Every structure is written in structure tokens, then in C-alpha cells.
């Protein structure tokens, strides 16, 4: 119980520090929203009118910083995240995030979990059969795939499966805009077909890390005395592999998986940009491009909370899986 309370204290302290940085970092970036809007309106609107318009959207450039900080913390915790002052001028930030978040969770979230599960399973078998044919092939192959940039793999898949095959798989947006959105077979099929290439890009570039890490952890774990004792007792090899080997070898991977789950909310920005996929990552890119403070702050806050919640959940799972952590 003390372990969980310590982690909750760490969670709250880290959240406060992240929210504080989240407030100040956009304000020390070069440029400001007024200048960005001046360029966008080509100088047809006066600076005073733009400042007044931004104030009506919740951005108050002339207000005292301490007052802005206090208002900001209150708004972050109450969900009053203001209105966009960027490309989607005047739109509520909550609506923009609500529209983009399901697409990121569906694409990046499912693919991340799939990569972890497949990578852990393959890495477990490769470590158990160390020195075999599978173990000889996997490390060099996945060392290469893990180093490939997201955008390069995405562009290659577009070249081969979208342009090179006469458009067999779509490579733009999240569904065919000629189809009315709904739970119809045509719309669902369009969404799935548009997700194939970005999901494959993410899977190819991430699964190798899980495979190699789990393989190495498995090899180290199988050298422990308790595994040798289990073998000496004549236990079933499958039970030794999963209950004694994999259960302990997966523990170091859980923290990394928690981080990856947290970053699911941020989306794979490069992947969503290459495929013009309207997820949260692409939304963040547009917010930065347009110096959209309210949208940037809400997104950064969301990313921070997602990572911290995932880490807290993994800490609890570690206590459940590893009895040694309960005594800490």
C-alpha cells in the first residue's frame, strides 16, 4: 500500500510540474498568435482588432502572467480549454480533440498493443530456442527495421501499394469522403482500408524493439537458479517457458509499454502527417504551425496525463506480477 501511495504522490508532483512547463513553454516560443493571424489575414485586420478577437476566445496577451497561470490551472482541471486561435479559429478545443482522438486511438492504439503482444510472443519463443533458426534470423532483421524512420517506411508503402499497384490501397485521409459516415459496411470497409498502410508503417517500425528486448530478457531470465530448479524438477517445458521465464522477463518491458501506451494519445505525428490522417498527432502539428496556444496546451496536458496514468497502471500491474515489489 505504501508503494502505491508513493506512486500517487509522484504522479501528482509530476503532473503539476508538467502543467507548469506546459504553460510557460508556448509563451517563450518565437512569434505569437497575433503575428500569426496578421500574416494569415494579410494585414487587412488591425492588431488591436485581432487582440480583441483573441481575448474573446480566452487568450489574453496583456493580462498578468501570474493571473494567466492561475486561470490556466483552473481551466485545465475543469475541462474549460478555451477556443482555438489557429487555423480552426473559434472552434472549441474540446470539440477538436474529441473529433481527432478516436482516430488516433483506433489506429495508433490498436497497432501499438498488437506490436507489443506479437513482439513479446515472438521474443519469448526466440529466447527459449536460443541458437535456433528463428533466433538466427530475427536479431539482424529487426535491428534494421527498428532503425527505419517512420516517414520513410510510410512513403515506401505508398509507392508500392498505392501508386505502384494502381491505387490498391488508399494513402490519404481516414475514409472515402464520398461515403456518408455511419455504421454501414461501406463506411467501415473504407475506414479499415485507409488504416492499412499507416498501421503497417507503425507495426514494421515498432515490433522489432519489442522482439529484441523480450528475447534478451528471456535469455537472461532462463539463466536464473529458479529456472534451473524448475527444469531439474522435471516440470513441463511450456510451463517453464511461460510461468517461470516469460512472466519474469516481461517485467522490464512493462514500463516501456506504459510509455508507448501514453504516447498513443499523441499519435505518431509523422505517420499521421505522411498519410494526412486526421488524428491527434496531425492536430498537434497544425497547432504548432499556427501558434495555437489553447490547443497546444490542451494537447500537451492530455499527453502528460496519458503517460502518467499508463505508468501508474503498470506500477500496479508490477506489484501484482512480482511479489518482490510488494515488500518495497
From TrEMBL:
Identify the domain of life. Answer: Bacteria
Provide a GO biological process annotation. transmembrane transport
Q: Where in the cell is it found?
A: Cell membrane
**CDD domains, alphabetically?**
TM_PBP2
Record InterPro entries: MetI-like (IPR000515), MetI-like_sf (IPR035906)
Main location as per UniProt: membrane
Q: Name one Pfam family in it.
A: BPD_transp_1
Q: Where is the ABC transmembrane type-1 domain?
A: 101-314
Q: What membrane topology is annotated for this entry?
A: Multi-pass membrane protein
Q: Which family does it belong to?
A: Belongs to the binding-protein-dependent transport system permease family.
* Protein name as catalogued: ABC transporter permease
**Species for this entry:** Streptomyces tabacisoli
